[in-house]
Amino acid sequence: MSNTEVTTTDAFISYSRSNLDFVEQLASELAASGKEPWFDKSDVPLRGIPAGSEWWHEIEQGIEAADNFVFIISPQSVVSPYCNAEIAHAVEHSKRKIPIMLYGEDEASALGEITQAINAIPDEELIPEAIFVPERDLKKLVHRNWQRISAVQYIPFKSHDDWMKPTQELISALEQDIERVRALNELQRNAATWERQERSSSFLLRGEALREAEALITESVGQDPEPSPLQSEYVAAGRRDENRRRRITVGGVIASIMLIVAAIVTAIIIQTNAVQERSLMERNAAEERANLQATAVEDQAIIASTAVAAEAEAQLRRQQAEEALRVALSRQLAAQSAIQLDRQLDLALLLSVEAVRMDDTIEARSSLLDALSRSGALDSFLYGPDNFIQSLAFSPDGDLVASGVCLEEEYFGLTRCVKGGVFLWDINTRQLVDILEVGHVGNVPSLAFIPDGRLLAVGGCHEEGVMGGPVTKCVQGAVELWDVTTMTMDGPPLIGHRNESAYTANLVDHLTFSPDGRWLAASGTIFKDGWQDTITFWDLETRQPVSEPFIPSDFLSDLAFNPPGNLFAVSSSFDDAITLWPFS
Predict the structure, then answer these.
(1) What is d(CA 196, CA 190) in angstroms, rounded to the nearest whole number?
(2) pLDDT digits (tens, 9 = 90+) for 97-122
(3) Alpha carbons 461 and 441: distance in angstroms, whole number
(4) What SS3 state is found at 541?
């Protein structure tokens, strides 16, 4: 293995040797703009390198050290075993993929040549032994990787055109959301170290670092790059270890309290026995004096007052012992609450409340005030089944909140969702009231309540098509309307335009109702003469689209009606602009 240290770079460039001149010029343009690209410039004949050589390890290091993975699309690179191995390694390490389409005069002809090259791969061709990749069947690996690459918007570079505009697009893509991308890369490196150390718990994340990693995983679901399986396992292992440590801590607290209780109870028993023995001795002495001589009235009064005093003293000591027990327990609970403030806020709050209930000491009050001051505006946690949430919507009256989740997953190298659903929570009781098993395949990316609150619109993919092996694509987006008063679907789904393209999905990823509840706007992405974001307007009285899909701009990120309902706003992540359209 090579001992060469690979420094962090802005991009790893994967390409076919037939495109070397283009790559060298592109790398020069990026370097002039302050970016640091990495690409294999070795002239060693690759097919002659034996298994176990340092060459492939250096390629892997270059990919792992890069913030982005840039792939040069050409008929040669798409079927290259080396390029496909590089793509597979980039996916394994959760790298953001930025494809570049290099073509001559006709973009469509270039796509046709790529399809012909893929179809021409012999069924029996294998990946060379010099490359370390789990999938050895070249044809299967090419189909899987082409589905991954073609699902991302590529940047077109025409051979004889001015490259200034596409180069600027590439630089913008490299810088987009870079903090999240770098955080994922750092998480991947930590996870890889954990894996190399045989998953030792000493390499797991804890405390604030673990909570930040969990938030990063949640934020990155459905984005590019998505969290890798190793990253998800690493963070989940950290959470399990944190929970185990918390249980041990709570167990220690309980054991300490039990020891204190046992000590105080022992003290009470000893003191009670002493009082009882004293009282017994006094009674025996009085009886003995009575038998020896006649007891005078004065003597009887003395004996009686002594017994009463002894009983009163015993009662006082019992009360003092019980008070001491409550004070000790209260202070112990307050001390444990202070320990948990920066580790587990909800546990700290519970411990401080119990301390005040046990005895209203200064320590108990202080611990409760400290815990409450740390909680900020936190109202409550809604704990449901173990499903990640992709979309949320409040009902207009604020009584319900809906969350789009995955109800069923399957694993083909990567985990994918095969059945979506919606959880409905009652905000007043903080309880899960129902689970809507919708008809979508895959996740539920969009939810919206109608203004009167009776209907909930659920957007997603209605039908998938097979691209090859386990790889699928969405060919039919749809919106289901659910009546939340009866928890039943209100009529058949609203089925949009069908997408037969081999390159992209057509699921419904944004929804919004007009203020009067008459119209529903639903957006999705299709491939038709290039990538296009579309919006379909539905008339909810007829349950029919009012026109052909509306194409407002590239890279649509959100949409909304204004309160009067006469304007429609569309935001674009490509040019950071909001476009207003009259709606009538």
Answers:
(1) 10
(2) 899 888 777 777 878 888 888 888 88
(3) 6
(4) coil
- Report field, pTM of the whole predicted structure over 0.85: no
Q: What is the CATH number of domain 9-176?
A: 3.40.50.10140
Only one residue has tokens 């991947």, namely 188
Strands across the sheet with 9-14, in order?
A: 37-38, 9-14, 66-73, 96-103, 155-158
Q: Where are the beta strands (DSSP E) in 266-316?
A: none
pLDDT tens-digit map of 142-165: 888 888 888 888 888 876 667 788
Is the four-CA dihedral 380, 384, 386, 390 of positive or negative sign? negative
Grouping H, G, I as helix, E, B as strand and the rest as coil, residue 108 is: helix
Mean pLDDT across 216-228: 80
Domain coordinates of the chain in residue numbers?
A: 9-176, 239-375, 389-582
Handedness of CA 169, 171, 174, 179 (dihedral sign): negative
Q: Tell me the C-alpha distance between 325 and 466, whole Å.
A: 70
The topology under which CATH files domain 389-582 is Methylamine Dehydrogenase; Chain H (2.130.10)
417, 464 Cβ separation under 8 angstroms: no
Q: How far is CA 410 from CA 85, 189, 437, 442, 484, in A?
A: 24, 26, 17, 10, 29
Helix ranges (H only) for 127-221 are 138-150, 164-175, 178-196, 207-220
